[in-house]
Amino acid sequence: MTQILTHSQHLMNLSPSDASIDAIHIDDIATALAKQCRFNGHCQGFYSVAEHSVLVSYLVPDSLALKGLLHDAAEAYMGDLVSPVKAVCPEYGDMEMAVLRRIHKALGVDTQHITGREWLDIEEADQLARAIEFEALFKMAPTGLWLNRSRVFPAGVPEHLQPQCLDWQAARLHFIQRYDELRQGEF
Hints:
Structural class: mainly alpha
Helix content: 40-55%
Radius of gyration: 16 Å
Distance between the termini: 40 Å
CATH class: Mainly Alpha
Largest sheet: 2 strands, antiparallel
Strand order of the largest sheet: 1-2
Shape: globular
Strand content: under 5%
């Protein structure tokens, strides 16, 4: 079986051969991401994928903010796998990208004309968010391949970009408000 039942009672087919977009709704995405904890739950406090996504939307160039907000939207339907697991399961990444394309189509987000540089900007913002989160939620400096946040914020990360560890209802609302704000800015 390749279907899941969403928060709004829609059946979402995850089969790569299914291109249906009828079951994709922003409220389902916001709700599911708000209930998923980053870092597989190993951080200090509850920190949702929804809150992380809002952070990424502020770290990308303004023209990419909506795509930054939705960069992990496929996880609303597929779950959040930690990066080391994704690295050894390339077929998961392919499936995730196929679901993300369907989400973009359902929400009217144009990604056909996005350049490789823009995808890199989103990935760099995601890494910067991870470094900010790692420092705040694990109380230690980020290491490895994660972008060193001090190069971007030499005076420290601004307060409005600090993880708040919102409960799931507040994180859901924050995600939806950011989505609405970005959609209004398009017209």
